[in-house]
Recover the amino acids of this structure.
């Protein structure tokens, strides 16, 4: 039966090629526009570490109080980064399974090859637990251990890309690297690891950035040698001291912090711990306002930091609107097409076809249009995703990609949407009175 | 033209009528909002930076060695002297940032040291005594910095400036009576800063939406960023010699001291490129919205043509009867044009509601957007009426050519 209806559908579609092509074009464009926007949206609002994101938390401590709100409209949110004092205190007390304070650095690296100019690299000063916490993959070697943190060891983990540039991709573990004029021993080389957004430090990177993460070195070491931070620094007042040391003594916030808490119990006890820490500091006279801490898991944190650019959401909304218009349009055209065949329906009904058969026949016809439109939509989506680089900034556009799930979704959306659009026209077709049609002929 | 019979006929085509009206309503809602987004982006893109963009370029210079403040200051003097020798270079200044770079250093501005809620959040530039001249800023009141006023600032040193040149936008915000010159303000500083000069336009470093309330509000203090990271050299080329100067300047700097880093991607930028990068996402959004508008209008027009053609085909016999009874070509044409006009008007009534609904939703969810002005809705209405009438014209013309003899043929 299915084959017969399919045959009928194709015959009918061939009979009015203009209308058919129009419907296919409309479905194709509508689906492609929404799928292209969706691919961008998916890329920027996706979970960067889906297997673990619900166990990663960002603590926020309200060290400025109500008077120091940077943004007066921003309903009582504590600062989104930490000052040095609290970051280091939290690291010392070490209450989570894994945790790391981190800040962005941008040191110069003098290549071993003396003919090369010094190069500027980006990276982070982190604690040893950063690597197991974020499941960072290594190509060669490994991360440093907790002892190196306390000893402020001059060690470094470099990206595969920097390893390629400086050591031609060879195993460089144990080699020496000159960073900001001081020697560091290479302990590990990362495998291809370049998460987008840079979820562990969205405060200092904005999330999406074309900047590379090339070096990771111990936080304690970076502080020791006075490697200045290269991210945002927000102050509620100008620091009293000067230099990088002055910044460390100030209440300015510039350090990101992440902790891994493996279950609900750990989460709530960590929250209690943060509040307790605040109360302790308040008792010591640092704060005069009530506790107002936050402990968000990674998805909630990315949401609160507005990491996904709002343009991508607006585009998605507008593109979905376009898809709805396309469907209303297709519904109108299908209605015209189906009702034009009232006499054919009349004959079929008179010969004993039940309403259900009419439903099947016309829904299959709608589905055929949807499928063909979907195939066109696949092609247009593919062109669209390639073309987003033309309209969107590079750091966003390069993230959108076509994959099997996007293609499958394109086809499913096209077929389901067209069949939905075909529901009312089919209903009308099934209501055709056979007697009336036969008489008028 | 009789409206009554048209309405009576439409009542027999409820579904098709509603579908076309709905489509027009949705199209109106989306197109109005999209056009408004396009307009906002275009306004943003064309914001003036206040600098002589045609002849300026920026070198992002980072040091390859660790310099003390004093060493860095000496290196900077040397670099400036070197850059001045480059053929085609007219002027050079040092800065911590430059207009429309995409990122601002900014300081809260208060009128008294005790004030809590800041009066403004101004972009903060460190410039030397060549800053105003090199950038081509228009000094509309007061004076430029004197060489002896310029201090060197090392890493996170609090060199507290006592004088500043501010933009007119900032002067107007702080001193609405137009008497900013010689007055004081505080920029998170313990001591007051005196306004010694006012420049006409000086854009902020950032172009984001968060700073929209402070647009154009910038201050320059006489400071040289002698920090261990590095700094920006803003170079003004002689007219027509920008490309040559941009080619030669980095070479001259490297020849003088190779322990520096000028990033291959971002280290050497003409102002045209800076502007392109700053507004890349706005331009992209404007293009995207334009494409969606065009596709949407095309689809709606196609839908109207398709459905009207069907109706014409369905009513050939009735048209024949009317023609046989004396209706002219023009009567038939008018009939279909009016029918479309009525449907469009119905759609527009719903559409206006949808338009404001969508706009309100966008405004509440994305604070970057603004409330839609009425002109956009009126423009959108006119556009859709024209589109509908244009789309219906071809099928209506075909209907008007139906010969009266159709009346005698069976349907």
């Amino acid at each position: 039966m299915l084959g017969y209806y399919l045959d009928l559908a194709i015959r009918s579609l061939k009979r009015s090629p203009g209308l058919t092509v129009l419907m296919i074009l409309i479905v194709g464009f509508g689906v492609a526009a929404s799928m292209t926007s969706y691919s961008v949206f998916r890329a920027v609002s996706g979970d960067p570490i889906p297997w673990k994101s619900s166990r990663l938390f960002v603590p926020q401590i309200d060290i400025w109080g109500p008077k120091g709100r940077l943004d007066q409209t921003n309903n009582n949110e504590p600062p989104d980064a930490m000052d040095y004092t609290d970051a280091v205190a939290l690291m010392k007390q070490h209450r989570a399974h894994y945790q790391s304070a981190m800040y962005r650095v941008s040191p110069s690296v003098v290549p071993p090859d003396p003919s090369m100019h010094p190069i500027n690299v980006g990276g982070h000063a982190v604690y040893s637990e950063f690597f197991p916490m974020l499941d960072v993959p290594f190509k060669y070697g490994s991360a440093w251990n907790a002892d190196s943190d306390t000893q402020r060891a001059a060690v470094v983990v470099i990206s595969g890309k920097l390893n390629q540039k400086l050591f031609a991709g060879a195993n460089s573990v144990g080699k020496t690297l000159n960073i900001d004029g001081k020697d560091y021993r290479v302990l590990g080389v990362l495998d291809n690891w370049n998460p987008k957004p840079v979820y562990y430090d969205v405060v200092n990177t904005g999330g999406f950035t074309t900047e590379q993460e090339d070096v990771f070195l111990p936080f304690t070491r970076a502080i020791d040698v006075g490697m200045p931070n290269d991210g945002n620094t927000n102050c509620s007042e100008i620091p009293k001291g000067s230099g990088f040391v002055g910044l460390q003594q100030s209440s300015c916030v510039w350090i990101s912090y992440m902790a891994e808490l493996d279950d609900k119990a750990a989460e709530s006890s960590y929250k209690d711990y943060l509040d307790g820490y605040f109360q302790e500091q308040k008792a010591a006279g640092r704060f005069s306002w009530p506790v107002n801490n936050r402990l968000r898991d990674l998805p909630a944190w990315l949401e609160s930091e507005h990491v996904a650019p709002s343009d991508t959401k607006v585009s998605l909304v507008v593109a979905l609107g376009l898809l709805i218009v396309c469907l209303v349009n297709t519904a109108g055209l299908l209605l015209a097409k189906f009702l034009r065949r009232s006499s054919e329906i009349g004959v079929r009904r008179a010969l004993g076809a039940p309403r259900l058969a009419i439903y099947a026949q016309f829904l299959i016809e709608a589905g055929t249009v949807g499928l063909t439109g979907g195939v066109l939509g696949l092609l247009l989506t593919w062109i669209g995703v390639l073309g987003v680089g033309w309209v969107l900034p590079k750091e966003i556009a390069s993230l959108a990609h076509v994959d099997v799930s996007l293609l499958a979704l394109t086809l499913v959306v096209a077929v389901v949407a067209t069949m939905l659009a075909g529901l009312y026209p089919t209903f009308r077709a099934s209501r055709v009175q056979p007697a009336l049609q036969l008489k008028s002929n | 033209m009789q409206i009554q019979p048209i309405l009576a006929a439409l009542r027999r085509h409820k579904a098709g009528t509603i579908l076309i009206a709905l489509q027009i309503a949705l199209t109106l809602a989306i197109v109005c909002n999209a056009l408004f987004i396009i307009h906002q982006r275009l306004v943003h893109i064309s914001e003036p930076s206040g600098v002589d963009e045609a002849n300026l370029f920026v070198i992002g210079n980072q040091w390859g060695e660790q310099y003390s403040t004093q060493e860095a200051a000496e290196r900077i003097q040397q670099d400036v002297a070197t850059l001045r020798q480059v053929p085609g270079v007219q002027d050079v200044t040092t800065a911590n940032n430059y207009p429309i770079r995409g990122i601002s250093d900014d300081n809260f501005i208060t009128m008294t040291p005790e004030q809590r809620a800041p009066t403004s959040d101004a972009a903060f530039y460190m410039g030397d005594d060549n800053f105003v001249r090199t950038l081509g800023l228009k000094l509309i009141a007061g004076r430029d910095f004197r060489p002896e006023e310029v201090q060197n600032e090392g890493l996170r040193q609090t060199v507290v400036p006592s004088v500043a040149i501010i933009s007119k936008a900032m002067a107007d915000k702080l001193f609405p009576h137009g008497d900013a010159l010689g007055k004081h303000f505080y920029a998170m500083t313990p001591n007051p800063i005196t306004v010694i000069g006012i420049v006409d336009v000086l854009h902020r470093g950032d172009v984001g939406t968060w700073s929209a309330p402070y647009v154009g509000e910038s201050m320059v203090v006489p400071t040289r960023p002698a920090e261990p990271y590095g700094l920006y050299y803003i170079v003004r080329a002689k007219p027509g010699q920008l490309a040559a100067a941009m080619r030669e300047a980095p070479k001259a700097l490297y020849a003088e001291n190779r322990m520096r880093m000028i990033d291959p991607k971002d280290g050497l930028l003409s102002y045209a490129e800076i502007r392109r990068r700053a507004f890349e996402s706005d331009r992209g959004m404007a293009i995207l919205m334009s494409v969606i508008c065009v596709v949407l209008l095309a689809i709606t027009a196609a839908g109207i043509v398709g459905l009207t053609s069907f109706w014409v085909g369905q009513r050939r016999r009735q048209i024949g009867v009317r023609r046989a009874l004396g209706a002219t070509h023009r009567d038939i044409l008018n009939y279909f044009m009016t029918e479309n006009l009525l449907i469009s008007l119905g759609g527009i009534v719903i559409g206006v509601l949808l338009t404001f609904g969508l706009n309100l939703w966008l405004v509440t969810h994305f604070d970057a957007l603004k409330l839609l002005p009425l002109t956009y809705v009126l423009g959108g209405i006119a556009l859709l009426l024209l589109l509908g009438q244009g789309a219906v014209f071809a099928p209506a013309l075909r209907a008007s050519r139906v010969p009266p003899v159709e009346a005698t043929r069976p349907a």
Notes: Residues 179 and 251 of chain B are 46 Å apart (CA to CA). Chain B touches chain A through 67 residues (CB under 8 Å). Chain B has a mean pLDDT of 89.
